[in-house]
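Deliverable D5.2: sample structural annotation.
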Amino acid sequence: MADKPHLNLVIIGHIDHGKSTMMGALLIETGAVTEREARELEKLAKEYDRESWSYAFVFDKLKEERQRGITIDLAFRKFETPNRYFTIIDAPGHADFVKNMITGASQADAAILVVSGKKGEMEVGIAANGQTREHAYLAQTLGVKQIVVAVNKADIYDYSEDRYNEVKESVGDLLKNIGFRVKDVPFVPTSGMAMENLSKKSDKMPWYDGPTLIDAIDKFVLPEKPTGKPLRVPIQDSYRIKGTGVVPVGRVETGILKKGDNIIINPTGFKGEIRTIEMHHEEIPQAEPGDNIGMSIRGITMQDASRGDCLGHPNNPPTVITPKGKWTGQIIVIWHPTAIAQGYTPVIHAHTAQVAARFASLVKKLDPKTGAVIEDSPKFLKRNETAIVELSPIKKMCLEKYEVIPEMGRFAVRDMGRTVAVGIVKDIDTGA
C-alpha cells in the first residue's frame, strides 16, 4: 500500500441513494472486507431484519464504536485499486457530512457522487432543496476537484440505457452549473446491491462501454502537497496525557512542521517549541500536509490550544480576525427559510473553528454563472443566490485568503442545524 499514491475519497449523495451499500460493496470487491466479515454483517442484518442493508452495516458498526467513544464523526476505511490506495471518508448523516466536509473535507481529494437512477429519487436529489445538489455544491466550494458519478440502483431501473442517459443529462447539467468540467466526469451505471459494474464489467449493460467504478476512481490524480506554503495546523482538540502533559492534535493543512520548531498558536498567541510529533502512535521527525498529528509542546496548557485555534510558525503566523475586523467572502446561499439580511448572525464553520459572525454588509449580488455584478448593496439574499458579503466574527478567529491558502480560506454558514451558505474568503481586514 505504502508505495501507491494515497487519496482521500469522500462518498456523497442524497440520503437514500445507496451510499453505504455502495461503500460496503466496494470494500468487498477490493478485498478490504473479507467475505466472512461480509457474511457476519449479513447475519447481523438479518437479526435486525434489514437484510438488504447488510453492507450498510460495514459502516454502521460504528454505532457501537460511537457509544464507546472510539470513532470521532467519521468512518475511515482503506482499500486499494490497481494503482491507488484510498481512505474512504464516510459521513454517516447529512448534518455530520456537512460539518465534516467543512471542518475536514478539504480532506477529500476526490468524490464519488452516488445518485439513484430509480424513477423519482434522482429528481428529488437534484431539486432545489435536494441533497445531491447541496453535496455537489459543497464539494465544489470545498475544493474537491475530481468526481465520479455512480448512477446507482441499476437493478431497479432494469439496467435501462434510456434512464441512465436521463440521469446523466440532469446531473450533468447540475454539475456544469456548479462549475465542474462535466466532460472530465465519468458517469458509471452501477448497482451496489447487486454488485454490478463495480470492479468487473456488467453483462447486464452491454450498451455501456465506459469504465467500471473501480477503473474510474483508479484514474484519479494525486493533488500536489502544499509543502511550500506557510505552516497551518488547525487544532482539532487538546488532550491531557499522563507523563507527557497537554497534547494538541490536528491535521497539517499546509507547510512542514519539524521537531524542535518554534511555533505560535493563534488566536491565543501562545508561543512554544515542538518537543515531539506523533502520528499513528509513532514519533516522526517532521509532518507534512495531510498528516494527522499529536504534538508535545513545552509549557503548553489546555487554555493555549483548543478546537478552532491554529498553529503556525512565528515568522508567518496564522491570520487572526478580531471582532473589530471583518472578512469579505463570496458566498452561495444554499438554503434559508426566508432571506439573509444585514445583521444576521449565524455560526461560521471554517477548518476546525466554529464562531458566530455577523453579516456586516451585503456588498453585491453576482451572476452565479459569470460572476458579473447583478445588483449593488442588495437588501436580501435568497436561496441559490451568489454574493459578495462582509462578515465580522463575534470573537477572534483564524482565517486566510482563499487565493493565498485555499485550505484555510473556505467557510460555511450554518443555522438551525442546516448549511445556509458556503463561501470563500476574498479579503481580510484583521481589525487589529
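Annotation notes: Residues 161-178 form the longest helix (18 residues). The radius of gyration is 22 Å.
The annotation will be released with the project's public dataset once the embargo ends.
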